């Protein structure tokens, strides 16, 4: 029942459908009908639709918002024209980088589409292993925050704070886990609807299989298993990745991060709506903003999407690296990241007004100072990380057996410069007991001693060499760009390949 009108949800279908389709073009309306016909055929006929379940993975950004609205239109179209329709499962994944504004956007979208009280809709929020019905006020589990915090730090120390490895590598594996849990939860789904083109899916699958093969996975077997085979390949990649990050003996970390692969009982089919619609935001701006109530939040909208505040932190880290590691200015590092961000936004065909909105938040000294403050606050609130810990991360002073430790202490903690030998002793193989140094290390880095010792025996990743899975992942990642910078040693103009989102 509608809590506001008292009407059963399906009695509101005609009005809702008319409102929703009023924002769709003739091409999109044809796409709605074609998708409905395809689903009827896949289900085995109209009479089978009530037992058929279709899933949309909802990141909470502008693009996935459109997919949710489109599939809802298909669901309503079938109900109104044939008297039967499928159940729509919408699942949203969260992590520490997802601010409340994203959940508020999702809530407004669900309300506009009449999904919150429709018995033909399953709205799930998935926080790692915890699956719950959606509610805008669901608290984020403390354990998930801790996992995300440790992953950001361990990746960031290995990558000197480069954007994609620091924030996205572990997160992308978590997305794979999310798909496995969402698609097989409570009896599973029959179809997963996606906005990715068939070409994008094939390219992504080929990239996964290359990485999996290099990780020792039997990719031939995976290729025979459809969607589940992709997840099994990603599980193999994840196992190799996290062993490289945490060490072979870190069984608890490995088990906690293992990609879920469902079971053999169901094999969801993937159906793309990409060829039936336009993904340019300005083609359906009125639908997303006016009808669905989507808002481009100051934190959640950062350069390439509107579902995560981590891109703002990527810019912040680049600026901190310039200021503290390279002896330049914060603004110089920020300008370099904005160069990357603008390139990525144009590649994604973002409308110029959104490009201007994103870049305009940095176009004066006062605004840049404000963004720095926002980034600092978000790092503390989302990940429990101080700027001191972020600076330590971009310095990467503990990897390579503390090769950059002396420079880090001289720059950031001169009062500890004479304690370098004690720090090496605590982090080294013998693990000398020194409570004062241990407490200081944990405070300045945000990491426990076990993880710090792992970093000490690990290397700073050389992204120009294929020797680590971290470098292989970035080599195949398109979200990177050569930016104009300054060689801090010579002061001469230089270029550097950096990644981001």
Shape field: globular
Instruction: Describe the sheet with the most strands.
Output: 6 strands, mixed
Average of the residue pLDDT scores: 92
Roughly what percent helix? 40-55%
Structural class: alpha/beta
Distance between the termini: 41 Å
How large a portion of the residues is in β-strands, by DSSP E? 5-15%
Number of strands: 8
Strands of the widest sheet, in order across it, are: 4-3-2-1-5-6
Taking pLDDT < 50 over at least 5 consecutive residues as the criterion, the unreliable ranges are 1-7
Tally of alpha and pi helices: 23
Give the radius of gyration: 24 Å
Key attributes of the depicted protein:
single chain; 501 residues; alpha/beta; six-stranded mixed β-sheet; two-stranded antiparallel ribbon; 54% helix; 9% strand; disordered N terminus
Description:
The protein has 501 residues and is α/β, with parallel strands linked by helices. The radius of gyration is 24 Å and the shape is globular. It contains 23 helices and 8 strands. The longest helix is centred in the first third of the chain and has 21 residues, at 62-82. It has a 6-stranded mixed sheet with strand order 4-3-2-1-5-6, with helices on both faces. A two-stranded antiparallel ribbon has the order 7-8. A hairpin with a 6-residue loop joins strand 7 and strand 8. It has helices at 13-21, 26-43, 62-82, 100-112, 142-159, 163-167, 169-184, 198-214, 219-223, 226-246, 251-256, 285-291, 310-325, 330-347, 352-360, 365-383, 387-395, 399-402, 405-412, 420-427, 435-445, 449-456, 469-475, and strands at 53-57, 87-93, 121-127, 130-133, 191-194, 269-272, 480-486, 493-499.
């Amino acid at each position: 029942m509608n809590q506001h009108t008292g009407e059963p949800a399906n009695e509101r279908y005609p009005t809702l459908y008319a409102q929703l389709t009023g924002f769709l073009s003739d091409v999109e309306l044809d796409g709605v009908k074609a998708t409905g016909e395809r689903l009827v055929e896949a289900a085995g006929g109209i009479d089978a639709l009530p037992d058929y379940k279709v899933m949309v993975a909802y990141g909470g950004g502008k693009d996935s918002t459109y997919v949710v609205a489109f599939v809802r239109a298909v669901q309503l179209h079938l109900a109104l024209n044939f008297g039967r329709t499928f159940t729509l499962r919408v699942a949203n994944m969260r992590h520490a980088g997802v601010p409340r504004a994203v959940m508020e956007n999702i809530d407004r979208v669900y309300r506009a589409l009449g999904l919150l009280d429709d018995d033909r809709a399953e709205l799930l929020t998935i926080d790692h292993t915890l699956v719950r019905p959606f509610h805008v006020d669901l608290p984020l589990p403390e354990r998930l925050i801790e996992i995300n915090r440790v992953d950001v730090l361990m990746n960031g120390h290995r990558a000197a704070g480069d954007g994609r490895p620091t924030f996205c590598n572990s997160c992308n594996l978590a997305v794979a886990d999310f798909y496995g849990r969402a698609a097989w939860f409570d009896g599973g789904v029959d179809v997963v609807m996606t906005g990715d083109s068939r070409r994008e899916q094939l390219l992504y699958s080929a990239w996964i299989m290359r990485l999996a093969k290099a990780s020792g996975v039997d990719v031939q077997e995976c290729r025979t298993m459809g969607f589940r085979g992709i997840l099994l390949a990603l599980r193999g990649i994840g196992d190799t990745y996290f062993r490289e990050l945490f060490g072979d003996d870190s069984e608890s970390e490995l088990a906690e991060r293992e990609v879920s692969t469902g079971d053999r009982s169901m094999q969801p089919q993937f159906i793309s709506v990409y060829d039936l619609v336009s993904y340019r935001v300005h083609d359906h701006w009125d639908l997303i903003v006016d009808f669905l109530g989507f808002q481009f939040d100051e934190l959640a909208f950062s350069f390439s999407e509107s579902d995560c505040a981590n891109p703002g932190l990527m810019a912040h880290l680049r600026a901190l690296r310039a200021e503290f590691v390279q002896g330049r200015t914060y603004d110089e590092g920020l300008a370099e990241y904005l160069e990357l961000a603008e390139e990525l936004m144009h590649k994604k065909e973002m409308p110029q007004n959104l490009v201007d909105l994103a870049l305009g938040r940095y176009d004066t000294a006062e605004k840049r100072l404000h963004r720095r403050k926002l980034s600092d606050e978000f790092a503390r609130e989302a990940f429990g990380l101080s700027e001191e810990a972020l600076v330590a991360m971009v310095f990467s002073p503990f990897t390579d057996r503390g090769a950059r430790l002396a420079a880090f202490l001289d720059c950031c903690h001169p009062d500890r410069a004479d304690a370098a030998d004690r720090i090496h002793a605590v982090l080294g193989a013998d693990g000398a007991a020194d409570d004062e140094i241990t407490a200081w290390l944990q405070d300045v880095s945000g990491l426990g001693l076990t993880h710090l010792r792992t970093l000490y025996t690990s290397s700073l990743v050389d992204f120009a060499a294929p020797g680590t899975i971290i470098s292989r992942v970035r080599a195949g990642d398109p979200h990177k760009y050569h930016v104009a910078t300054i060689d801090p040693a010579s002061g001469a103009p230089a270029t550097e390949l950096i990644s981001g989102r």
